[in-house]
Amino acid sequence: MLTTFKATAKKLPEGLQVEAQSRGFKIVMDEPEDFGGTDKAMNPVEALLCALGACQSIVVAAFAEGFGFSYEEFHVELEGDLDPDGFMGLADVRCGFQEIRFAMHFKTTESQEKVEAFAAFVEKTCPVGDCLANGVKLVQAGVVRH
Length: 146
Description:
Strand content: 15-25%
Helix content: 25-40%
Number of helices: 4
CATH architecture of the largest domain: 2-Layer Sandwich
Number of strands: 5
Distance between the termini: 35 Å
């Protein structure tokens, strides 16, 4: 059975700031000054990296016990390569990330083999990672003029 998640994003008056919300929670995004923003918040592609890292972290916390995996601490470092010329219309290159790299850091006494097996499980189970790795059909559901 499918569960539908919903969000809205609204341009704010200052610079390129946008307020996004879902289920009553809000985040503000912006762009660096170099890209015309006010640099008062992370930009959407940085938020995407954070969403991937947060999703992986949640999978670790939610499934470690059932996997028989114990750890004291976990964090993930992420980075992605994007050519801003595509977004700015200055070159015919992809607008989005060309590659995202991440390193999972576990503080654990588990064997390297078990850590690698659990990391592979996390990669396979993370919904955000699945969306990025396998693509998602984007459907424009309408354009409304007010």
